[in-house]
Amino acid sequence: MTETPASSNSRPLQRFPVVVVGAGPAGLTVGCVLRAAGVDCLVLETGTRESVEQRPRAGVIEEPVVRGLERRGLAGNLLERARRDTACEFRFDGERHPFGYHELTGGHHWVYPQQFLVTDLVREYADVRGGAVRFGVRDVRVHDLDRDRPSVSYLCPESGHRKVVGCDFVAGCDGARGVTRVAVAGRARVARHDYGIGWLALLAQAPPSADRVLFGCHPDGFAGQMPRSPEMTRYYLQCPPGDDPESWPHERVWAELHRRLAAAGAEPLTEGALIEKRVLDMHDYVTEPMAFGRLYLAGDAAHLVAPIAAKGLNLALHDAFALGDALVERLLRGDEAGLAGYSESRLRQVWDYQEFSQWLSELYHGGATGDPFRAGTALARLRRLFSSPATAAAFAERYLGTAARY
């Protein structure tokens, strides 16, 4: 919640042009962009550095995002270590249907686990570019966002005392449950969509059974395989929303994966220990606008897109590029155009990706709804994807994130 410091003891003891709340991909990228331009900033993060660097999340990164990281000097390890995916495979009607999107567009995906990217960004921001960061802070609050001199306060983990930091701008990059999203709860319009399904997200200590992403569109529910490394594989299983991960023991998980990803001529899955199990309730939201006074939201603090289309990390980084560049222009050159247009320009892409996620969800899940009409239209979409070159090309561009410029 937005608050005003209550006493003279709360006056800012430090000052930075920008305070970034949240040390995820968006916040760290904003910080790196600012530091590269010589702008001081402070990043505040409630987690420890170790927890931030080890948190497994997304892993599919679009080529335009990689090029954006590369232009900003942030893609060195990624370009050396990431694998390139040039095709995926749909499995339905008991058959394999390879989809070579590189052949259609010349583009590809990069697979680089989010924790590796975050580790790179932390090192670049804090160790290489000398950016200020405070890990392990508590009870972060934002103040006076509609004034020229906002501030952010937090409880110091060492002393337990509240510290107040003055700034010109606040970058809210602290995720769906973060304080900056809460701070605008009474002012923002939040559009939300619930899919009515869950995904059991699994991380298996096992090599992928195929060298590509697999999408199993099965009458009993969707299943997906996403290779992460030669030794680790991400799997997803459609399940009821709110399902208990503990109701999915090792044997049940692998039995369902084998069944839903089965196809004629396919290699059997290689089983391994399940080192992560959690249920994701599939939903989206969009916060409008993404700017409130001196606060600018980025990433999940502004919008959430379900992992159906692997767009969340990519949207967060696009936000960070736009916000970092706009802050540099305003602080170094007095040009306010980028900040003034930030929310409107970013929301165009956000809504485009939300629409694609909805479309793809029906492709994945329509056959498992129990509704013969939805099952029939989902199958029609799948068949058209492999019978119409125009449909295939349009899908490939949207899947790769190269269909439009924003």
Descriptive key words:
406 residues, eight-stranded mixed β-sheet, six-stranded mixed β-sheet, 12 helices, oxidoreductase, FAD-bd
Describe this structure in words.
The protein has twelve helices and 22 strands. Helix content is 36%, strand content 28%. The longest helix is centred in the last third of the chain and has 29 residues, at 337-365. By secondary structure, it is α/β, with parallel strands linked by helices. The protein has an eight-stranded mixed sheet with strand order 8-7-16-17-18-15-19-22. Strands 10-4-3-14-21-20 form a six-stranded mixed sheet. Residues 4-9 have low confidence and may be disordered. A hairpin with a 6-residue loop joins β12 (151-155) and β13. It has helices at residues 25-36, 49-54, 63-71, 76-81, 101-105, 114-128, 179-183, 250-260, 312-333, 337-365, 372-385, 389-400, and strands spanning 2-3, 14-15, 18-21, 41-45, 60-62, 83-85, 88-92, 95-99, 109-111, 132-135, 138-143, 151-155, 162-166, 169-172, 189-205, 213-216, 223-227, 233-239, 273-288, 291-292, 295-297, 303-304.
Work out the radius of gyration: 22 Å
Structural class: alpha/beta
Helical fraction equals 25-40%
Kindly state the number of beta strands.
22
Q: Which strand order spans the largest sheet, edge to edge or round the barrel? A: 8-7-16-17-18-15-19-22
The biggest beta sheet reads: 8 strands, mixed
What's the mean pLDDT score? 94
Shape: globular
CA-CA gap between termini: 31 Å
Query: What's the tally of helices?
Result: 12
EC number: 1.14.13.2
InterPro entries: FAD-bd (IPR002938), FAD/NAD-bd_sf (IPR036188), RIFMO-like (IPR050641)
Keywords: FAD, Flavoprotein, Oxidoreductase
GO molecular function, one term: 4-hydroxybenzoate 3-monooxygenase activity
